[in-house]
Amino acid sequence: KSENTLDMYSLIIKKDHQEVAGLFRRLKAAEGFSETSEQLFTQLREELEIHTHAEERVWYSALRETEGTQ
User: Fold this and answer.
1) Would you list the DSSP string of 15-51?
2) Does the predicted TM-score (pTM) go above 0.90?
3) Is 6 within 8 Å of 63 (Cβ atoms)?
4) Number of C-beta neighbours around residue 30 at 10 A
5) Distance CA 30, CA 9 (A)
């Protein structure tokens, strides 16, 4: 994989991190509102599962391939 591919993955991972951080902020702000908190927690869990899978499968794989070519 090229350096441009890693840059693209890096941007996607950074965007995901920002989205998850935003969900944490919204969850904290919704404290006391159980229905809203439950919905946000469910969304946060789903986002983290997707993000973790993508990060492990795509990002670290691409990083290992790049490190192996240098």
Assistant:
1) HHHHHHHHHHHHHHHTTT-HHHHHHHHHHHHHHHHHH
2) no
3) yes
4) 16
5) 31
